[in-house]
Design a protein that fits this description.
The strands form 5 sheets. Strands 1, 2, 3 and 4 form a 4-stranded antiparallel β-sheet that branches. A 4-stranded mixed β-sheet has the order 5-6-7-8. A 4-stranded antiparallel β-sheet has the order 14-13-16-17, with no helix packed on it. The chain has helices spanning 2-41, 106-116, 120-124, 161-175; strands at residues 58-62, 68-80, 92-101, 127-128, 137-143, 146-151, 183-188, 191-192, 195-196, 201-202, 219-223, 234-240, 246-252, 258-265, 274-280, 288-297, 304-314. With 318 residues, the protein is of the alpha+beta class.
Length: 318
């Protein structure tokens, strides 16, 4: 009888032990899952739409109020009077940095920022927009690499072939910064257009960046855009039509110290347009304004010609 009475007690002890360890295990698992959820909620928002952009970043930094500042960087394209010559009168396109609220509709956000035009400070530097102030964006759709952009009829108001080509180029370059957009089809008040404005510009087919090389300076700096963070290392990209495709690059700190001087070779040169890119590491102790300059070295006397400079924000390497 003693053995019979002790066996239930021993069995109960074993069951209680198993239950204790099971509850302990559940508690640890729950702790890990909550930690993971917290980590996920603090990561940057990811683009999951066909209109995500190369070079576009989402900034979820914290403001003074402690709330996330969810914005993204895009580029808009204005014209700028700089380094014109008798055979290249200009003005030329310039790539400009903009921060806009983070959104899935990045193409629409960029075009909307373009329509807002340059700031007063940018205007003082010689920038301008050829798009009429009362132009409205009705909508954008993207399919098979073609962005169909519908503007109000005022988009073609005014006159002058340079103004017309420049406004078309500004829209095309702004839209095609995104990898899913190769070309642009224009509409006015919902109707496709094949002849643009009184200048008679043919738009029978979608147009791309290569259709507006005449609006570019011989050395066109695309990224970093005017006023953009240079990041570290800086990733410099652009397009040029210069002798042997050789593009010189310098990066200068706020106090005038030269941080880097290098060169790169475009994919084509001497009578043809080619793309160029270069990664440039640099050292600064703190965030500061700097200047990134690209140019062609004169084959005649070694002087700087076809110069384009962008103010940029320099940051210490991580």
């Amino acid at each position: 009888m003693k053995l019979t009475n002790r066996r239930p007690v021993r069995l109960l002890t074993v069951l209680l032990s198993i239950l204790f360890f099971a509850l302990s295990g559940c508690s640890e698992t729950d702790k890990v899952e909550k930690t993971s959820d917290t980590a996920d909620s603090s990561t940057s928002t990811q683009e999951n739409t066909p209109t995500k952009t190369t070079g576009q970043t989402t900034d979820n930094s914290t403001t003074e109020t402690g709330k996330p500042d969810k914005k993204m960087s895009v580029r808009v394209y204005f014209t700028m009077s700089e380094n014109e010559t008798h055979y290249l009168p200009g003005p030329f396109l310039v790539s400009v940095h903009r921060r806009v609220p983070a959104t899935l509709g990045v193409a629409k956000a960029a075009i909307t920022a373009l329509l807002e035009g340059p700031t007063a400070r940018e205007t003082a530097k010689g920038m301008g927009s050829n798009i009429p102030d009362d132009t409205r964006l009705h909508g954008i759709s993207i399919e098979d690499g073609i962005a169909t952009i519908d503007f109000s009829a005022s988009f073609e108001s005014g006159g002058g072939s340079l103004s017309m080509f420049a406004r078309l180029a500004a829209v095309v370059y702004t839209a095609t910064q995104f990898p899913t957009v190769d070309k642009v089809q224009f509409e006015l008040d919902g109707k496709p257009i094949t002849v643009f404005s009184g200048e008679g510009i043919l738009l029978e087919e979608p147009v791309g960046r290569e259709d507006y090389h005449d609006i570019l300076p011989p050395v066109f700096l695309d990224t970093p855009a005017w006023g953009a963070p240079a990041h570290n290392p800086a990733r410099v990209t652009g397009i040029s039509n210069v002798f042997e495709g050789t593009v010189q690059i310098t990066l200068v700190a706020a106090d005038g110290t030269e941080l880097a001087h290098t060169f790169t070779t475009a994919t084509c040169g001497t009578g043809c347009w080619g793309t160029f890119k270069k990664t440039i590491p640099y050292k600064v102790a703190k965030k500061q304004k700097g200047t990134l300059t690209v140019w062609e070295e004169s084959a005649k006397d070694g002087s700087k010609i076809n110069v384009r400079s962008h103010p940029v924000l320099l940051t210490p390497a991580k």
